[in-house]
Amino acid sequence: MSIKPTPQMIRAARRALKARSEAPPSKRALTPVGLARARDIANGRPMSDETLKRIAAFIRRHRRDIQDKPLRDDQGHMTKGHQAILAWGGLGAEAFAKAQLAKRAKLSAASTPAKPAERIKGSKRNPAGTAKGKRGGIKIGAATEEAIKRKAEAHNKRHTSKAKRVDVGMLKAVFRRGAGAFSTSHRPGMTRNQWSLGRVNAFLELVRKGRPKSAKYTTDNDLLPKGHPRSTRND
User: Fold this and answer.
1) What b/e readout covers 126-136, taking b as 16+ CB neighbours within 10 angstroms?
2) CA gap 169, 188 in Å, rounded
């Protein structure tokens, strides 16, 4: 997975390359690696996670090289320190790279495989397949069922059209599917109950807004109210 440099990074790299070309050989910065990086950024080429890590590390190490230093020397040439920083996308590239890496890490954590002990397929209370194509007959804890009832009531008070109304059986099916998905992968530190209620919240947002927060979330479309634009119900 890769991401393109920002317009600011592209401008910075192009500025560095221009300044370098106008300077005499003795005042040109950049190693072959740095020069290649500047050209890649200037051309807007996608950056891998490894490239983002190197950009963040380079800027962090060398930002002190230009601290309190003038942009140009007495002859009007851009200093080597500024050429180097700009070539790697500029000072702002460090924060951008870190943010992108953190986002990737978060997405990766959300799909962390469940531990063997957490890989459950059905139970005595809810056999495997309980929530497949159904909206009722699912048994959950009293406290959880009460929480789901409150969510349904609060939602229906704000949304009265049939295409946006939900019922407890519908949300219980979503919850049950979330519990099953937890057995495959989930974000570390979350319990099965939290993960399942999170899926209920995502479902309610889909019902309310007409589209999911994540385009990949389509697995509960068959439970959506009849008349909802994304509903795949057959009844």
Assistant:
1) beeebbeeebe
2) 28
C-alpha to C-alpha distance for 38 and 186, rounded to whole angstroms: 39
3-state secondary structure of 21: helix
DSSP state letter for 226:
T
Tokens encoding 179: 């519990």
The answer to whether 180 and 203 have CB atoms below 8 angstroms apart is: no
C-alpha 195/C-alpha 186 separation (Å) is 7
Q: How far is CA 90 from CA 16, 25, 77, 114, in A?
A: 9, 22, 18, 40
Residue 153 pLDDT greater than 70, yes or no: yes
Please provide residue 214's backbone torsions phi and psi, each rounded to the nearest 5 degrees. -110, 130
pLDDT of residue 190: 81
Name which of 29, 28, 23, 20 is nearest 75 in CA terms: 23
Cα Dmax for the chain: 82
> Does residue 46 contact residue 3 with C-beta atoms inside 8 Å?
yes
Take residue 129 and report the two structure tokens written for it.
């397949």
State the Cα–Cα distance between residues 117 and 183, nearest whole angstrom.
Answer: 9
The CA distances from residue 73 to 80, 81, 191, in Å, are 10, 11, 59
- Other beta carbons less than 10 A from residue 3's beta carbon: 16
Residue 73's pLDDT band (boundaries 50, 70, 90)?
Answer: very high
Determine the pLDDT at residue 132.
52
How many angstroms separate the CA atoms of 227 and 164, rounded?
Answer: 8
| Residues 62, 33 contacting (CB under 8 angstroms) | no
